[in-house]
């Protein structure tokens, strides 16, 4: 079995505030709980196999069925039979990371690397675990060891680059991303990562050249088109920026950052309906859409469309009932429409929430609005 899914880093700055939305998606590592001891049902079962290969086969089947605890128990039995098998320990470490048992995972993975100093997968997994517990120096060391063992491991390069950038070590990050491009010259993400760090380092010209390279090798990559469009927008080349954003939207109509960028341009041109439509397309189909709804509410207020703003604020409150500012703004708008009963309810909710949060300024605003009803 391939014990690790393909690593990937998405380290690309996008969004109306030009924030770097990152994620080091090295492996699908999410669940919880601990480490089963060898006295599990497997160990106690009659006719338990004495062949490590059979335990590995069972562990793989349980893993595929997402029975993580059962898979760990099976691999532990295999490890008892073959205590010097680095790959088995790597699988245990990987599985324990899926349970968020990071201390147990580190112990298993470090033992795996001591048994086999050439186990690149174990070093990759160690890097991920150290990132999760925010031990960045150890994470960088683990990923660099993985790179030394596998020069083609593009994702380890990207992970090191991300960590160096988080530490504002831009020059070293630039070096590692250039190495990644040398290894994988067709990987558009590496160009995006490099371009982003060049921008952070103040080299906008260099970033533009890198993004143009990415555009040539991946002309249908919406992220690349948005990156180039953003640079045009920063240079006040609005027509060129719009052309890139529109191309991105032809590829993916709901591309969040293309829509956010287009919305910003439409808003600057007073085209509020177009701006709101773009924001609606940018809203996630699942998850928290409150930042988008807040932007929509602001645009409605700029137009003087109170009813539209009310709908947006109600949606924010549905998603985030503890958002005191949304309650406050909703109450103020309802008061302007003379809907005092609804307004009072919203403002009282805001007052209560601001008080709980210790927000003195917000509490003062809520009480003032209530007094004015």
Automatic annotation (TrEMBL):
Q: Which UniProt keywords apply?
A: Repeat, TPR repeat
Query: What are the ranges of the TPR repeats?
Result: 52-85, 86-119, 120-153, 154-187, 188-221, 222-255
List each copy of the Cytochrome c-type biogenesis protein H TPR domain by range: 46-146
Q: Which InterPro entries match?
A: TPR-like_helical_dom_sf, TPR_CcmH_CycH, TPR_rpt, Ycf3/AcsC/BcsC/TPR_MFPF
- Give the SUPFAM superfamilies listed for this entry: TPR-like (SSF48452)
| Top-level taxon | Bacteria
Recorded hits in SMART domains, A to Z, give: TPR
Pfam families recorded for this chain?
Answer: TPR_16, TPR_CcmH_CycH
- Signal peptide bounds: none
This chain belongs to the protein called Tetratricopeptide repeat protein
The organism encoding this protein is: Pseudanabaena cinerea FACHB-1277
